[in-house]
Each structure stands twice: as structure tokens, then as C-alpha cells.
Automatic annotation (TrEMBL):
Keywords: Isomerase, tRNA processing. This is TRUD domain-containing protein. Pfam families: TruD. The keyword GTP-binding does not apply. InterPro entries: PsdUridine_synth_cat_dom_sf, PsdUridine_synth_TruD, PsdUridine_synth_TruD_CS, PsdUridine_synth_TruD_insert, TruD_catalytic.
Length: 676
């Protein structure tokens, strides 16, 4: 089913209704629509580099050669470099430092002798240092750091606790550690669902690197960890001096933001809940935006482009660590490049001049239309915010805000009264319905339909889950929750908080669009007494920049924390103050571009001339009271103000006659392909 019609989501008015339009094909090809995110600092995001598989493979090869070179320096005559010797003596004590040097010498000698035949000595896998010279947590941390600084390419460290409670430092050869900590026959897997100290079956307990014996042992990828006789092979600890969030720029072609993030999360073995973005971008487009990942090492992300499941439609660049998480709406806007094709010749004979329209829109020049755009246009929330499926996102949002949890779950799954009747008619009561899903972009539409038909007709969530394609993450998440017996409200809480927020925001946006249309019809296109404007002339409106809810993905088996679920007061965006126009003089001093309308939500200030309109439209269109927007228990419906009109910046229009109608006209696509 196509996008919602404009009238269905409150878009009914024009800023310049006297200007007639022109015909043409919009987004005929996905290469015809480019979106570049503009961050809060005003930087337009583009790829500054391409992290290609070839470049990453060459980098890994170089690193491996450097490790082999460092490893080859070991031998019977091996000694520490002077600077390393001094630091190791200070951190380990002279006795332990000498023992480490002897360990490395024996390691190489043993490897050489093992080639001589049977009975040769085996290479020692690790060496233990007593706590006599390394006593206390800070001393152990210093020892860990010194060893990894100089020999981290082939050595690893951990703190081991003996049965009597004493602790010692264990130094491993990395390769030997991986072999020693491989699962032993008969060992039992333990899921990484809680805290632990990495206890093994041996009498010692591995505390992990850096001497830390507490904290979460949860593996970020959600996979099982299996203990051996030497304990569990643990992840590298997150450096304390490294910011918690990895930012990178994501270039994508012809896929949803959620689909892209889900693909990357799968390749790096993380939950999508650890990723965030300022807003979703169009599917049928070329887009560049910022993505944020919690505690994801940059080198791990770089290596991921070599993964066999890496999506070839994606590119990444500009990896950097930052201290703050990227949240929804934290951007200034977007830069668009758009190609309109098949414009009638009469319309583009002079793209810079205006003409007098004749009997139809096809006779209006581009010049007149784009000249009118200079004055701006009504700042409606666009169609993509409301989804492409038969059930629109604002309908789901209204059910969530009203606390109708079962209805909300069913709507997300595409189950509603009219559909049930149609399915019963088509199925004849004794065979699966031929009902098809309406999102045309779903390659698993048949299986998805079969799964939802099972749930629709039988209510058996487990059977539906068994049939549901793994690509349908939201549906699988909800069906899995219901199959486990979770109440409908808890099932909704299994979704990423950002996804639920987008549903609620779609309902807010629907009311905002409808109020703006009523405001234009009843009060015209000029400011009037009672309108709201920002109290400060430098204040900026909030730009949520959200699109389809359906493209926000979630792994149904993930136990990762959802960092958007609990926002502190400092996380809530400080909204600029507004003031009402008190008289005709104040109204005459501003323009419609200065007038703002609030989203319905908590702590909202409504314009006095539209307060009743908000309540009326909410009741009639969504069955909600305005107070419902501030009382939702699952998601916070925060308010914000948006300008009634908006002007595009640095607008350029080029008209050209093309002999070949399907040639690519926007250059970045070629640039990326050439550099791959």
C-alpha cells in the first residue's frame, strides 16, 4: 500500500495557494534523492574517507606483520629494552621482571625444541607472579598496564584468586590462552545474563584484566560463554580514559536506517539497543547521517566491513569517540538533493522566469513555482513519519498513549477488526488466508503474511513466531514476548524505547499537522493576537527528523540495556521559552515564520486562540484528551515547538533537457562506486 495521502495526516493547506504546480516524477529512482544530515554544529555530513574491505585487509596484514616481528625478537638471548626494563622493574619488581624475561625466553626455546621430536618440552602457556612485590589493587593495575603497553600484541594479563583468598598476577601468551580456555568436554554453557566473577572449574577464579573482580560480566553480543578448566576467555576491558560512545558517519543506499543499523549490529555481535541516531532517513535514497554506538571499539567496527554478512549498500567513515550519547532530534536539519524527472517541456523552457498559468498545472513554469518557494512553505511533518503500512504509525501511537496495550500490539502486527473479517472471508475458515502484507519493501512478504495470519486466526504467538522471517524484528520481538506469556504492556516494553517513542511522536505530529491546517484556514497566513513566538530571537525550534517507525529494528533475543528507557533530568532537552502576541502591534512586528505551534505533551503551553482546537482535534481524530499525552506510562510524550513555516537555505535549481531519461544525475553515487 502506498504512503498515506496528505489529507489523511492533516496536510491540507498551502502557503501560496495561488501558485499552480507542475507535473513530474519524484524519486523515480532511489539515486534521485540524497539526504545529508546537518549536525547541531551546522556541519553537513559527508563521507570523508571510505573504509573499504581492501584497505582494512591491508591494515590487518600490516598489524599482523608487526606482531610477528615483535614475536620474532624473542629468543634465548632476549632482553628488555632499557625503557621497558625500567618500567617493568618499577611495576612488577625486579624479581618478577626477571621471571617475565625468563618466561619469554623459555617460550621461544620450547617452541624450537618441540620441532625436534617427541619428548621435547612444551611451551609454557602462562607464568604467575606472587603478590609479594605486587600488593594491592593499584599496584596490580600498574603491572597490567606496563605489560600490555610493551607486549600487548602477544601477552595478556589477568588477576587470579587462589582458594585461600590470595591474589596473583597471571601472564598469558595470547594464543595459548585462547587454546587453554576453549570449552572442555562436558562443560556447561552459562548465559551471560548477570553478574559474575568468571569462575571456572579449576580451584582458582579468574578476576579479569585490571584487577577488577566486580561488575558486569555480560557479553555484549548476547552469545553464550563457556568455561574451561582455566576459566572464561573474557572481553578486553573498556579503557577508563576512552569516552563511552563511538560516533561514525553512515552512508546507505536504498535501505532503511533501522535496517542498516540492524545489519551493522549483527555483524559486530551487538544489540541494536546499543546504537542510536538523531533521526531516521528515507529508504529509497542515498543518505549520510551520524550513528552512535555504546562502547564499541573503533577497530572492531572497521574490521566488520570484512564480515561475510556486511551489507554492500553501506559505507562508514569518520570514527571518533565522544562522551555523550546521540539522541533523537539532536540535529539542525538535513540537506537535500532532489531530481524531478519527466517535467513537461512547457514548464522548464525558462526555469528562472515566471509565467501566467494557463488552463492546467502542466503549463506553469518552474520559475514561478520555485520563486514562490523563496518565501518558504508550511512546515508539516511529512508522510514518511506516518509509515507505509496499512496501519499508520499515529494509530499505533494513539493506542499506546491511551494505554490500550493489546490494541497497540495488534496494530503493530497489522491485526485489526477490518483485516480479521477480510481474512476470515478469504480463508473460508479452514485454510490459511492469502492476505498479503502491504509494505512493498519486505522481501519476506509471503512468510510474514502467513505468520501474521496464524496469529490473526488462532492467537498462537509461538506458531506465528516459528513462521515469521528473522528480517521482521519488531514483529518477532512482540510475538516472542507474547509466546513467553508476557502481558501486552510488557511486550511493548521489549521494543527499543526509541521505537515506542517514534510511535507516540507520530500521534503528536498528526495533531500538530491538523492544528496547523486549522490555524491557516481560520486565521490566515499572517500572525494574529494569541499566536506564540520564541521569547528569544536566537532560539531554534526542535527538529525530530523521524521517518518510518517500521524500520527501527530489534533483536528479539537481546538482553542489552536500553539506554533511552531512563532519561535523567539533564538528558531532557531544554526547550526555549515562548511568549504570546498580546496586541496588533506585536503581531505586525513578526511574520508567520516566527509563529510556533507546540506538540501536545507534558508541560505544554498552548496558544490561547487554539487551545480548544487542540482538544477538539485530539478527541475527534485520535479519541484522546490532551491530558492523555502527559499521562502515558510507557513513553514520555515530551513537548516541543515547531515553526509554522520554514525556508530552505542555499537553494539552487537547475533545469536541463536529457536525451537519456534514466541517466544518474547526482554525483556522490558515482564517487562512492569509483572508490570502492
Amino acid at each position: 500500500m502506498p504512503h498515506a495521502l496528505e489529507e489523511e495526516v492533516g496536510i491540507t493547506e498551502y502557503l501560496s495557494p495561488e501558485v499552480q504546480g507542475f507535473s513530474g516524477n519524484f524519486k523515480e529512482r532511489w539515486q534521485d534523492f540524497h539526504v545529508y544530515e546537518v549536525d547541531q554544529g551546522g556541519v553537513e555530513l559527508h563521507l570523508s574517507e571510505l573504509i573499504t574491505p581492501g584497505a582494512v585487509a591491508a591494515e590487518l596484514k600490516k598489524n599482523a606483520e608487526e606482531r610477528r616481528e615483535a614475536r620474532s625478537a624473542l629468543g634465548a638471548s632476549f632482553t628488555f629494552e632499557p625503557d621497558a626494563a625500567a618500567e617493568l622493574d618499577a611495576a612488577l619488581g625486579q624479581g618478577n621482571a626477571q621471571e617475565l624475561q625468563s618466561f619469554l625466553q623459555k617460550q621461544t626455546v620450547a617452541e624450537a625444541s618441540s620441532d625436534a621430536g617427541e619428548g621435547a618440552a612444551e611451551a609454557p602457556a602462562f607464568v604467575d607472579f606472587s603478590s609479594a612485590e605486587i600488593d594491592g589493587k593499584e599496584a596490580r593495575k600498574k603491572a597490567h598496564a606496563a605489560i600490555l603497553k610493551h607486549f600487548g600484541s602477544f601477552l595478556n594479563t589477568e588477576t587470579v584468586e587462589l582458594p585461600e583468598g590470595a591474589r596473583m598476577l597471571r601472564i598469558w601468551m595470547r594464543e595459548a590462552e585462547r587454546k587453554a580456555k576453549a570449552p572442555t568436554p562436558g562443560s556447561q554453557a552459562q548465559t551471560s545474563g548477570g553478574k559474575g566473577k568468571g569462575k571456572g572449574k579449576a580451584k582458582s577464579k579468574a578476576k579479569g584484566k585490571g584487577g577488577k573482580g566486580k561488575g558486569k560480566d555480560k557479553q555484549q553480543d548476547g552469545q553464550e560463554k563457556v568455561e574451561s578448566a582455566f576459566g572464561t576467555l573474557r572481553r578486553e576491558g573498556w579503557p577508563k580514559d576512552r569516552p563511552d560512545y563511538l560516533y561514525f558517519r553512515l552512508y546507505k543506499e536504498n535501505c532503511n536506517t533501522g535496517e542498516a543499523v540492524s545489519s551493522i549490529a549483527r555483524c559486530v555481535g551487538r544489540s541494536v539497543k546499543q546504537f542510536s541516531f538523531a533521526g531516521t532517513k528515507d529508504k529509497r535514497a542515498v543518505t549520510v547521517q551520524a550513528i552512535c554506538a555504546h562502547r564499541l571499539p573503533a577497530d572492531q567496527l572497521r574490521r566488520t566491513v570484512l564480515h561475510r554478512l556486511w551489507d554492500k549498500r553501506l559505507r562508514i567513515s569518520d570514527l571518533e569517540y565522544r562522551g555523550e550519547r546521540l539522541r533523537l532530534g539532536q540535529l539542525r536539519g538535513n540537506r537535500f538533493k532532489v531530481v524531478l524527472r519527466n517535467i513537461p517541456p512547457q514548464a522548464d523552457t525558462d526555469a528562472s522566469a515566471a509565467c501566467v498559468p494557463e488552463d492546467g498545472p502542466e503549463h506553469c513554469t518552474l520559475g514561478q513555482a520555485f520563486s514562490a518557494v523563496k518565501g518558504g512553505f508550511l512546515n508539516y511533518f511529512g508522510l514518511q513519519r506516518f509509515g507505509t503500512r496499512e496501519v499508520k504509525t499515529h494509530q499505533v501511537g494513539a493506542a499506546i498513549i491511551a494505554g490500550k496495550w493489546e490494541e497497540a500490539v495488534n496494530l503493530i502486527l497489522g491485526v485489526y477488526e477490518g483485516k480479521a473479517k477480510r481474512a476470515a472471508q478469504e480463508s473460508g475458515g479452514d485454510r490459511p488466508s492469502k492476505l498479503r502484507r502491504t509494505d512493498a519493501g519486505c522481501v519476506d512478504a509471503g512468510q510474514t503474511t502467513d505468520a501474521l495470519t496464524i496469529f490473526l486466526e488462532t492467537g498462537d504467538a509461538q506458531k506465528a513466531l516459528d513462521v515469521m522471517p528473522r528480517s521482521q524484528h519488531l514483529e518477532r520481538c512482540l510475538l516472542g514476548a507474547r509466546a513467553r506469556g508476557l502481558p501486552f504492556a510488557e511486550a511493548l516494553r521489549q521494543l527499543p524505547h526509541q521505537a515506542v517513542s517514534l510511535y507516540a511522536h507520530a500521534a503528536q505530529s498528526f495533531i500538530w499537522n491538523s492544528v496547523l491546517s486549522r490555524r491557516i484556514r481560520e486565521f490566515g497566513r499572517h500572525p494574529v493576537v494569541g499566536d506564540l513566538v520564541f521569547a528569544s530571537p536566537n532560539a531554534e525550534a526542535f527538529d525530530g527528523d523521524t521517518c518510518e517507525i517500521s524500520d527501527v529494528m530489534v533483536k528479539d533475543s537481546s538482553n542489552a540495556p536500553d539506554e533511552d528507557a531512563d532519561l535523567s533530568e539533564e538528558d531532557v532537552r531544554k526547550l526555549p521559552a515562548v511568549r504570546a502576541l498580546q496586541n496588533e502591534e506585536e503581531a505586525a512586528a513578526v511574520t508567520l515564520a516566527d509563529v510556533v505551534l507546540p506538540l501536545p505533551g507534558s508541560e505544554v503551553v498552548f496558544p490561547s486562540n487554539l487551545t480548544g482546537v487542540y482538544e477538539e482535534l485530539s478527541q475527534r481524530l485520535l479519541g484522546l484528551s490532551i491530558s492523555d499525552f502527559s499521562n502515558c506510562s510507557i513513553v514520555q510524550c515530551a513537548t516541543s515547538e515547531s515553526n509554522c513555516t520554514i525556508k530552505s537555505r542555499d537553494r539552487n535549481v537547475h533545469a536541463m533537457s536529457m536525451q537519456c531519461p534514466h541517466v544518474h544525475l547526482l554525483s556522490i553515487w558515482f564517487q562512492v562506486v569509483r572508490l570502492v
